[in-house]
């Protein structure tokens, strides 16, 4: 069933998302970087309810609004077990399970790497996915807890989704990611893609969402030859100052 998505900036470079099942009106917030901003956006939306919080991982910039948003709306909080390290959680979900948002079935996939318990949510029928800090436009999450092998496997799983899948990433990192990508990729089409990113950011336009097809074409981490190449690229990005 169709999903409506509202993207809005939170904190210094996070994005918040409100997602509505169009057929039933059920609404979810994907992560809770800033409770006040989320609740204000919910009011502006006119959607009138919040049924779920869908956490992707435990980091505070994704969970610190859980308690306040739940207190204000009565919603249920869904996410991986690791969320309990930082915030309230009502229902634990793991890869292979489904979360219902009204008539929309959201498929849960384990994507360890950034954290060990990171998960992502995909509306396979509608072709939309909420990937937290696993995949970014032209980038991927730092390996704070996982190994290169884990993150490589996680990214390969996402790359297997249909190319037209719309990918909602949780941070606006794309300009910095583009500069790194240009250091590895001298194709004219890469330069043109990066130029479009820089132009969008100069006008304060978001570079999210992206698509799996675009990321397979330009993302240096999805374009790595193998896990060893990925590990070298990830380490280089960590120290990149370009």
Number of helical regions: 8
Question: Shape from CA axes?
Answer: globular
Main sheet strand line-up: 1-2-3-4-5-6
- Order of SSEs: EEEHEHHEEEEEEEEHEHHEHH
Give the strand tally: 14
Quaternary arrangement of the chains shown? single chain
Low-confidence stretches: none
Main sheet summary: 6 strands, mixed
Rg result: 17 Å
**Class by alpha and beta content:** alpha/beta
Strand content: 15-25%
State the helicity in percent bands: 25-40%
The residue-averaged pLDDT reads: 97
The end-to-end span amounts to: 43 Å
SSE blueprint and pairings:
Layout: E1 3-10, E2 14-21, E3 27-30, H1 35-45, E4 52-54, H2 60-63, H3 66-73, E5 76-79, E6 91-92, E7 98-101, E8 104-110, E9 119-123, E10 128-130, E11 135-136, E12 139-140, H4 148-159, E13 166-168, H5 174-184, H6 188-202, E14 210-211, H7 212-218, H8 227-238
Parallel strand pairs: 3-4, 4-5, 5-6, 10-13
Antiparallel strand pairs: 1-2, 2-3, 7-8, 8-9, 9-10, 11-12, 13-14
Helix pairs in contact: 1-3, 4-8, 5-6
Would you give an account of this structure?
The chain is α/β, with parallel strands linked by helices. Helices cover 33% and strands 24% of the residues. The chain is built from eight helices and 14 strands. A six-stranded mixed β-sheet has the order 1-2-3-4-5-6, covered by helices on one side. Strands 7-8-9-10-13-14 form a six-stranded mixed β-sheet. Helix 5 runs antiparallel to helix 6 (188-202). The protein is globular, with a radius of gyration of 17 Å.
């Amino acid at each position: 069933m169709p999903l409506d998505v509202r993207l809005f900036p939170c904190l210094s470079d996070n994005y918040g998302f409100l997602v509505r099942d169009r057929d039933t009106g059920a609404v979810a917030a994907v992560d809770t970087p800033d409770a006040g901003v989320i609740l204000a956006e919910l009011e502006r939306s006119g959607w009138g309810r919040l049924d779920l919080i869908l956490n992707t991982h435990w980091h505070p910039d994704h969970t610190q609004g859980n308690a306040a948003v739940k207190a204000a709306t009565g919603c249920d909080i869904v996410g991986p077990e690791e969320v309990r390290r930082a915030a309230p959680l009502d229902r634990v979900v793991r890869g292979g399970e489904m979360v219902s948002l009204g008539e929309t079935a959201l498929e849960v996939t384990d994507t360890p790497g950034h954290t060990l318990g990171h998960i992502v949510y995909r509306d396979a029928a509608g072709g939309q996915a909420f990937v937290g800090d696993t995949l970014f436009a032209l980038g991927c999450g730092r390996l704070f807890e996982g190994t290169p092998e884990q993150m490589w496997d996680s990214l390969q799983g996402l790359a297997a989704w249909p190319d037209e899948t719309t990918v909602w990433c949780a941070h606006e990192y794309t300009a910095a990611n583009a500069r790194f990508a240009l250091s590895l990729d001298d194709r004219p089409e890469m330069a043109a893609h990066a130029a479009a990113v820089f132009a969008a950011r100069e006008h304060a336009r978001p570079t999210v969402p992206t698509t799996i097809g675009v990321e397979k074409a330009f993302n240096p981490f999805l374009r790595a030859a193998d896990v060893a190449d990925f590990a070298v690229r990830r380490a280089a990005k960590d120290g990149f100052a370009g």
